[in-house]
Amino acid sequence: QEPFVADEYIERLAWRTPGGGSRGGEAFDPKRLLEEFVNHIQELQVMDERIQRKVEKLEQQCQKEAKEFAKKVQELQKSNQVAFQHFQELDEHISYVATKVCHLGDQLEGVNTPRQRAVEAQKLMKYFNEFLDGELKSDVFTNSEKIKEAADIIQKLHLIAQELPFDRFSEVKSKIASKYHDLECQLIQEFTSAQRRGEISRMREVAAVLLHFKGYSHCVDVYIKQCQEGAFLRNDVFEDAAILCQRVNKQVGEIFSNPETVLAKLIQNIFEVKLQSYVKDQLEEHRKSDAEQYLKNLYDLYTRTTNLSSKLMEFNLGTDKQTFLSKLIKAIFISYLENYIEVEIGYLKSRSAMILQRYYDSKNHQKRSIGTGGIQDLKERLRQRTNLPLGPSIDTHGETFLSQDVVVNLLQETKQAFERCHRLSDPSDLPKNAFRIFSLLVEFLCTEHIDYALETGLAGIPSSDSKNANLYFLDVVHQANTIFHLFDKQFNDHLMPLISSSPKLSECLQKKKDIIEQMEVKLDMGIDRTLNCMIGQMKHILAAEQKKTDFKPEDENNVLIQYTNACVKVCGYVRKQVEKIRNSMDGKNVDTVLMELGVRFHRLIYEHLQQYSYSCMGGMLAICDVAEYRKCAKDFKIALVLQLFDTLHALCNLLVVAPDNLKQVCSGEQLANLDKNILHSFVQLRVDYRSARLARHFS
């Protein structure tokens, strides 16, 4: 049996044999096992011979059956060939008979067609005679239920009558035409009644009959008119139109043979009658009196009309439905879109001016004229080169004349203008129109509001020698920075998509760059003058609070303060200004301005310390002051500023170091690279500088 494994078979045989299962054990009997193997081999040989005889017998039987089967197949092949020959003969006979039948059919048709035509002509002549006699006796004309047959006859008679000469057959032609018209009216009336009853099958039958009549188009008109009865009852005419077209689209194919033409005619009727009338009523009311409402209505109506058009694109309206619908929309809005941009620009200009004026009125501020021309240009160039205030300083009382509410209102108005421009402008005019709107935004937001605030802020910066000056220009910087971020966001979000693929892109980018550069010049100028004022305030504090006796006390052994009062007030003032600068600016501008302030602060303290003579205890107090200044400089978080004050602190050590150690201190890490004259200038500030010992050690 399969699967057969010889080793396992031998093992099983050995285990079954008594004395053959234990190898090397006491019960193991090799002779008996050998005897069992020899006997089993003989049995296998006998079995093999028996199986071999059986196989030979089966092979002989198989060969015999194969011969019989081959013989049977040959007989079947012969029978199949005979049947195939009979089939070919039958097929040829059928083809022959079919040819004869077709020929006979053609002959019969050739005879029957003229006969039918003759019968048809005879009937038409009979009906024509009735019209000649002036009395219609046939049942087809008198039975109202046979209106379909009557319509077919009168339509043919009408065609025949048109070929007859008028002088001989004028009366009969008139009667046929009258009957033609009567039947046409009856059919249209029947169609109307069926439509009101909702009988689609009857409508289809009547429409098929009317298809060959001149009044077929009138049938379509009646259908369109009745479809709209009760369809426009809500306030939303656009939604009503979409629902109506959806309903008719499902129905019209079951009634008319040309459903796309009928549906297109319905849509045309809706656009030219319902929508055009609705749009005119909505727009003409505000066209001359309220530009804002007019523009909102125009945008809303045009958007809803194009949305309706998109829905109608799903229907079969013929070959070029896109052009068809576009022409319908254009016909409605052409008179409003032609001068749209002029209305938009006019409204945006007046609205922006009103927003600004309302803001300045709320501040009780009469806007100054910045002016242009030769004198103003000259002043501007002089101010840029000298950084001096030209003209009297203006007290703004802390008012920046910048308002985020104003900016948001201007940007919102412009955003809506960009959206309307995108929707209502012709694609070829879109970049040009968008640029005009952007130019207005630049004019009113950047020039009339931000630039005016910068000019006013510059004029409000006091001179550097003013006492207790209030510095508001950093507030202007902070608000201008915030506003310009909003301006830049609108430029990227709303203007760029409209001009990105047109030559106007470079023009807009250049205009934006110019206005930024113009404002940056004024911001830099104002910041520079503000820093000068800060340094001036520090000078006033030092001049008022610092006394000569601070660094040369009368009683060297009775100094109780850690640092001078002047140092405390200056550091307090500086910390406030650093915080204000951080709150007013962002990014790298903070570090740039703080570095400039820190350098000027260092220069001020350096020059201030040069004005005094220092005793030993006074020098210690100066070191304490500079240490406090250095702690204040850490708030700047500018490496250069901290390095400058570290060096200044090291210089102040020269005021107290023992004469014998002067050279060692001067060659230290922080002072080794300084000019010898600077070191000498600090040593000269010591009260004991004149002593021969000190001069000798420093020489």
Automatic annotation (TrEMBL):
Q: Name one GO biological process term.
A: Golgi to plasma membrane transport
Q: Where is the Exocyst complex component Sec10-like alpha-helical bundle domain?
A: 149-698
Q: Which domain of life is it from?
A: Eukaryota
Q: Which residues form a coiled coil?
A: 41-79
Q: Which InterPro entries match?
A: Sec10-like, Sec10_HB, Sec10_N
| GO annotation, cellular component aspect | exocyst
List the keywords (alphabetical): Coiled coil, Exocytosis, Transport
The record places domain Exocyst complex component Sec10 N-terminal at 30-138
**Family listed:** Belongs to the SEC10 family.
> Which protein, by its recorded name, is this?
Exocyst complex component 5
Organism per entry: Cisticola juncidis
Top-level taxonomy: Eukaryota, Metazoa, Chordata, Craniata, Vertebrata
